[in-house]
C-alpha cells in the first residue's frame, strides 16, 4: 500500500508547476475575460457601456465649457496638432502654459470619448437578446451614431480653432455635443427596454407637454451659447463675438428660462393630478428643483458680473437638466416585449372552406 501525503490530496493544495497553463495561455484567458463584456455582451453590460457613454459625453461638454471660460480656447493654435511643431502641449510665447494644457486636455478627452463610443458600437453589434439570435437594430443604429458624430465634432472643433473661435462655430460645436449626448441618453434608455411597440404611461396631453419641455430646454441651451459668445467669456482675449446687446440676449435667455420653469411646473402638476406613476412624478420634482436652483445661479452670476467659476457651474448644471429632461420624457412611456412569432404558435381551427376541400380530397 502506497501512502500519499495529505498535502497532495487536499483540494486547496497548489497545482504542480507542470499543471499550470503557460504564460501565453494565461494572457489569452485574461484577454478573453476583459473583452467578454464587449465580444459577448449581456443586457446589463451593454447598458453599462451606454451609461459610460452618457457620463463621458456630459464630461466632455463640461470640460469644453472650462476651456472657454478659462480663456484657453486658443491654448493650442493649430489642429489636429497643438502647434505646427508639436502634436502635444508645448510652451508658446505669450500664452500661459496652463491654457495650453487645458485645451490639450480637452482634445485628449475627445480621444477617450471616441474609444468608448467604438466599444459601445461593437457591443451593440454583438449583442443578442436572450432567446434570440438576431441583433437589435435600434440599438445598433443608436450606437453607430456616436463614433461618427464624435469624429464630426472633432472636425468642428478644428474649425473653431482655425477660425480663431468664431462664435457661430463655437455655438455649433456645443450644440452638436448636446445632440450626441441626447443620442447617448436614448441608447441607455433603450438598452433597458424591450423592442416592442411604445405604450404611453400618462395622458397624451402630458406627453405633448413633455415634448415641448425637451424643445424649450434645447432652445435654452442654444440661447446660452449666444449669451456666452456675446459676453466677456468668449474663449480668449481679442476673439470675435456676437454683435448683440448683452442685456438683450441675457433677457431672452431669462425669458426662455421662465417659460421652461412654467412648463415644468404645469407638467408636474398634471402628472400629480392624473395619478401618473410615482417614478415619473419623482423625476418631475427633481427636474423642477434643478431648474429652480439653475435660475437662482443664473441671476446671481448676472448681478455679480459673470464670474467664470459660477458661469461654469451654470453651464455644467444645464447639461444635467438636459439629461433629466430627456429621462423624464422617456419615462412617460414604455415598450412592451415583441409579440411572439406565429411560427411557434399552435395552429387554430381551419376555415370551413378549407375543411370542406380536404374532405372532398379524402373522399376521392
Describe this structure in words.
The protein has two domains: 38-195, no CATH class; 197-335, no CATH class. 68% of the residues lie in helices and 2% in strands. The protein is built from eleven helices and two strands. The protein has a two-stranded antiparallel sheet. Helix 3 (43-69) runs antiparallel to helix 6 and helix 7 packs antiparallel against helix 10 (308-331). The longest helix is centred in the N-terminal third of the chain and has 30 residues, at 97-126.
Features:
364 residues, mainly alpha, 2 domains, two-stranded antiparallel ribbon, 11 helices, 2 strands, flat
Rg computed from alpha carbons, rounded to a whole number of angstroms:
28 Å
Please provide the ordered H/E string of secondary-structure elements.
HHHHHHEHHHHEH
Sheet of most strands: 2 strands, antiparallel
Strand content: under 5%
Q: What's the overall average pLDDT, rounded?
A: 83
Trace the largest sheet across and list its strands. Answer: 1-2
Number of helices, counting only DSSP H or I runs of 4 residues or more: 11
Amino acid at each position: 500500500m502506497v501512502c500519499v501525503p495529505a498535502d497532495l490530496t487536499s483540494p486547496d493544495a497548489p497545482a504542480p508547476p507542470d499543471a499550470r497553463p503557460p504564460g501565453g495561455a494565461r494572457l489569452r484567458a485574461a484577454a478573453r475575460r476583459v473583452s467578454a463584456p464587449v465580444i459577448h455582451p449581456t443586457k446589463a453590460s451593454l447598458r453599462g457601456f451606454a451609461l459610460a457613454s452618457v457620463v463621458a459625453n456630459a464630461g466632455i461638454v463640461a470640460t469644453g465649457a472650462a476651456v472657454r471660460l478659462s480663456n484657453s480656447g486658443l491654448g493650442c493654435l493649430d489642429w489636429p496638432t497643438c502647434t505646427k511643431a508639436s502634436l502635444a502641449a508645448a510652451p508658446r510665447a505669450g500664452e500661459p502654459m496652463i491654457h495650453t494644457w487645458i485645451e490639450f486636455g480637452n482634445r485628449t478627452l475627445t480621444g477617450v470619448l471616441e474609444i468608448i463610443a467604438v466599444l459601445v458600437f461593437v457591443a451593440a453589434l454583438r449583442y443578442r437578446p436572450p432567446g434570440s439570435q438576431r441583433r437589435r437594430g435600434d440599438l445598433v443604429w443608436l450606437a453607430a451614431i456616436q463614433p461618427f458624430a464624435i469624429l464630426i465634432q472633432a472636425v468642428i472643433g478644428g474649425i473653431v480653432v482655425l477660425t480663431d473661435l468664431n462664435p457661430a462655430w463655437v455655438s455649433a460645436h456645443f450644440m452638436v455635443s448636446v445632440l450626441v449626448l441626447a443620442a447617448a441618453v436614448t441608447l441607455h434608455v433603450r438598452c433597458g427596454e424591450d423592442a416592442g411597440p411604445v405604450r404611453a404611461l400618462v395622458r397624451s396631453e402630458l406627453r405633448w407637454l413633455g415634448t415641448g419641455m425637451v424643445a424649450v430646454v434645447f432652445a435654452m441651451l442654444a440661447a446660452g451659447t449666444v449669451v456666452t459668445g456675446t459676453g466677456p467669456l468668449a474663449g480668449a482675449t481679442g476673439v470675435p463675438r456676437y454683435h448683440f446687446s448683452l442685456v438683450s440676449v441675457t433677457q431672452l435667455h431669462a425669458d426662455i428660462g421662465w417659460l421652461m420653469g412654467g412648463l415644468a411646473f404645469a407638467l408636474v402638476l398634471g402628472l400629480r393630478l392624473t395619478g401618473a406613476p410615482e417614478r415619473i412624478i419623482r423625476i418631475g420634482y427633481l427636474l423642477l428643483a434643478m431648474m429652480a436652483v439653475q435660475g437662482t445661479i443664473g441671476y446671481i452670476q448676472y448681478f455679480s458680473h459673470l464670474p467664470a467659476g459660477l458661469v461654469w457651474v451654470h453651464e455644467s448644471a444645464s447639461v444635467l437638466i438636459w439629461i433629466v429632461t430627456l429621462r423624464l420624457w422617456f419615462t412617460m412611456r414604455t415598450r412592451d416585449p415583441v409579440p411572439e412569432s406565429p411560427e411557434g404558435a399552435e395552429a387554430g381551427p381551419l376555415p370551413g372552406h378549407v375543411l370542406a376541400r380536404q374532405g372532398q380530397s379524402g373522399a376521392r
